[in-house]
Amino acid sequence: MIYLYLLSGLFLGWSLGANDAANVIGTAVATRMVRFRTAAALCSVFVVLGAVLGGAGTTETLGRLGEVNAPAGAFMVALAAALTVYGMTRLELPVSTTQAIIGAILGWNLFAAVATDAGSLAEIVSSWAASILLTAILAAALYALFRAVLRKVRIHLLALDSYTRRGLVLVGAFGAYSLGANNIANVMGVFVPVSPFHDVRVAGLFTLTGAQQLFLLGGLAIAVGVFTYSQKVIRTVGNDLLKLTPLAGLTVVLASSLALFLFSSQALEAWLAARGLPTVPLVPISSSHAIVGGILGVALVKGGRNIRFRVLGEISLGWLATPVLAGAIAFFGLFVLQNVFSLEVHRRADTVPIASPATAPVTAPEPAPRPREMGPPGPAESGPAIDIPRAEPGHRPAGRTFP
To answer: Which end of the chain is more exposed for a tag (fewer CB within 10 A), N or C?
Structure first.
């Protein structure tokens, strides 16, 4: 039955690929520097690699927000997020999958009467705002740097076109890897506590954990979404918000990819912590937030002209509506599963096994030794014989007094 529940996670992965692939390859395809099929194939390969190799960090943070502890509950949480993302995709809006899954988890917390970890929620929400600001700053700085270099180093137009094309391919691969590492938690994170998979040794070379097998399935679902439905959203991100030149497109994808990588790299976090430096929280951020922040950063360097604020307003409304809609769908869906289909959508605390720290076994205290009697010895007891010398008449042992 658990394998049927995973279908909603695969649906969510497909929806993420159909929507968020535009954030990685949209500018390259929209500027016609890379063909769609080439960009989609590149994105698919690296998004799977990122999901399997680097998806563990953000999944842990998502689990602290709300650990969905029943397979039917995980199914509905993923389905609510997927339906929300799919609906926004049909409207050709770059919706945030991260906001959809967060809203759905909050809906489960509300239905199950489970307290939401306020610290984790604040960390995730603040990271959304930080990712927009960080990507805008990175994009503005990179774009200004690239323009300054090109003014000093005169490059033939055809050579510049070739370099930009290659740069978009490399940056697209990096962006796809970062997208898979950061956003796979949105697709399969809720299924990790109820995963049906066990660790598998592959050809004696490496081990795929149960969580990594989930991430592999989710990554493949994302890849299918990239190929089948992402072209419509690419038009919105690549052209409708701001007309991008190839150089600007390269800058935006690079800046957003760096932001996704910073918020998902466990190796970077460990490196910073080992040197006593402040670390970047490992939280799933919205690639839509990042890409829009990058476009706005480039636009500011250009003087803020040609931004289509109507499109920006529509995207912002989609961001606001996403968590509310996903939370409502999750809440009512859980109600239907529990009361109509009699499925367990959450487990009470007294029915969920709680791992306790290992403690030493408690043993009964040994009985106190009986006082030795001063009479003639009784019959021999079982066990090792003890030879107790008898005192001779009239002889008193040294150091012992008698009344």
So the answer is: C
